[in-house]
Amino acid sequence: MKIKVDELVCEANAVCTGLAPEVFELDDDDQLHVVLPEPPAEMLARVRHAVRSCPKAALSLEDE
Fold this sequence. Notes:
By secondary structure, the chain is α+β, with helices and mostly antiparallel strands. The protein is 23% helix and 22% strand. Strand 2 and strand 3 form a beta hairpin.
């Protein structure tokens, strides 16, 4: 799985960073960065929850 961010839609609400801080990070300019774009299997449940919880639906998961 690979995480994608639609930067035009993301409003930096930081829901994802609260749910999976090892994977998502906001910088000082409120730009979202995916620190682990291909998270390990043991983190996928939390990543999926973070993706589903995005208030703007700016995150998605893609199979590779």
